[in-house]
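The following record pairs a protein chain with its ligand, KG4.
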Amino acid sequence: MPVILAIESSCDETSAAVCRDGIILSNYTANQTVHERYGGVVPELASRAHLQSIVPVVDAALSSANCELYTVDAIAFTQSPGLIGALLVGSQFAKSLALALDKPLIAVHHMQAHVLANLIENPELQFPVLCLTVSGGHTQIVLAKSALEMELIGETIDDAAGEAFDKSAKLLGLPYPGGPLIDQYASKGDDSKFKFAEPQIDGLNFSFSGLKTSVLYFLQKQTKENQNFVDENLADLCASVQKTIVTILLKKLKKAALITDIRTVCIAGGVSANTGLRKAFLEMGKKQNWNTIIPSYEYCTDNAAMIAITAYHKYMDGQFADLSVSASAKASWQ
Ligand code: KG4
Ligand code: ZN
């Protein structure tokens, strides 16, 4: 019955979670609002905010799990990928705790953890599983043969899906991060009102940089004729952008399921919180006869519960790190 304390600090959320025997007891996240006024995450500010939040966040996770630090069996942390300064705060904190408490250390790959977020509420999940992981930094199709054996079979060649949301939102005058705002406005809009370019990319890879350009040129043309074009059409613009992104994502996911003949399909990452994607994914799953799984919202965006669940599987498999392990901004898939 291992009790694991997990820490996530790869980008702009400081999060800590406690799990016992693969069951999440607490998951506490401090969001950094300091980046809003800059229109994107400022790495140095993220590191400083992690430094300020990490002790209270870990304390909150332990106390809401009714757990004392000395009763923890292992300390887990996000090793990669992410912003190096941000990762260093979490990794040094975890290593210090492991050293001081003389407990084993578990290093976790953030993208593997996003996939395994699906196990939190579905511990009986049968592998192999196909997962579309869509976040601010990544867009991937992952074939998970087991909890610890994963293969990357498709990814973006330029922008991530979250970036496509955030950059389109910026062009529409919305603050960062614009993804959730596009989602909100889209619920009141007509998604067939405007058409944006869909990329033609072979295989299972994605491309989103053309969409941003397509939105930019379209808005430039329209606002020349009517200065209030964006304000007057915001909901329809958001709905149309969202539909384009969702269509691009799900076309490739469907292709991946056909190629691999895998019927258990899940989504993960911050963009999997998107209402349009969740709805269209479930509809596609019904048509394709998939067993579809979506994590609850709190497990879609960055969180330490997903680090804890991954660490639990690594613990059971005896995969521990030693204190010389270092954080890494980029990391090979496995
Ligand atoms: O996984 P995540 O929290 O952090 C990274 O690892 O990147 O993902 C953050 C991304 C941002 O681009 C944000 O705009 C997007 O997820 N996002 C959404 C929604 N909620 C978060 N995009 C569209 N609709 C949402 N509801
Ligand atoms: Zn993430």
